[in-house]
Amino acid sequence: xxxxxxKKIGSRQGLIAVGLGILIAQLIMTSTSSHNGIVNxxxxxxxxxYNMNILIGIIIMLFSGHFFGQLSGVAIxxxxxxxxxxxxxxxxxxxxxxxxxxxxxxxxxxxxxELGTNDDPFADYIxxxxxxxxxxxxxxxLLVGIWFGRQIKKHSNIDKLGINIISESERx
Length: 172
Known about the structure:
It is a single chain. This protein has one domain (3-171). 75% of the residues lie in helices and 0% in strands. The protein has helices at residues 3-33, 38-42, 51-78, 83-109, 121-154, 168-171. Helix 3 runs antiparallel to helix 4 (83-109) and helix 4 (83-109) packs antiparallel against helix 5. The chain is globular, with a radius of gyration of 19 Å.
């Protein structure tokens, strides 16, 4: 397997994992927001004025999934690193990058105007949102990270013809 193929596999699996993460985030927000009905819960983002932050967060998450997915593909398929640990670390890197960079959106939109006042815009617009994103997303990230690493690892047993190659030790 070449490094290019490993990056391609990692990127594809990273984007799938990010899609799964977005789906899980939607389910979490729907369940916590459905006190006014399931439709209102599903459309939770329409009641907030942070649509730009959410959109930018999704874009950052997709780019992070692509980038860290490529690194994971090389680490797992070429360098033979532990797929569980690599998947978890990649998931955490995506979560931290997305939480921090998407939190900066609100800071630059509104918080920068509050510099020099009694408010703490850095805490209000960067630290607090990043903390909550990280806190709520930690467990799903760990689970999706393990799944992600395993999906990449599965490609190490497939030859160029698409035939699954399993050694005698793996069969038992």
